[in-house]
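User: Before I run my own analysis I want an independent prediction to cross-check against. Here's the chain; please return only the structure tokens and, at the end, one sentence I can use as a sanity check.
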Amino acid sequence: MKQKYIYETKMMVRDYECDIEGIVNNANYLHYTEHTRHLFLKACGLSFAEMHRKGVDAVVARMNLQFKTPLTCDDEFISRLGLHKEGIRYVFNQDIYRASDEKLCFRGVIEIVCLVNGKLADSEDYNKAFESYLQGLNA
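Assistant: Structure tokens:
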């Protein structure tokens, strides 16, 4: 089944993100995907910082990462995400494509859970913000 993306953003590789081999260091893909999720939250009307002040923290519970084609210095890329919910987990399917040729560079499945006042719980704020994206999906 082809991934359904609900959000995307363009970014560019900066020289300091590359290692001695001239390719993006693997850890930077996690920064790219996290930045994409934070931008997606803003687009949904949520502020990651404001949610923290309210006592609701979305944290990474699990990641499955696949590195496909390396990005290099000055490459422009498109970070795309899809979303579904499994129980109290929000599952983000995040793919990164090189903009010049749409070559898949990275694929990640990142599972997020919420801590509400320090306890694992479902978040009404996140559920409401993601409602239109989750309708019709198995929750």
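Sanity check: The chain has a mean pLDDT of 94.
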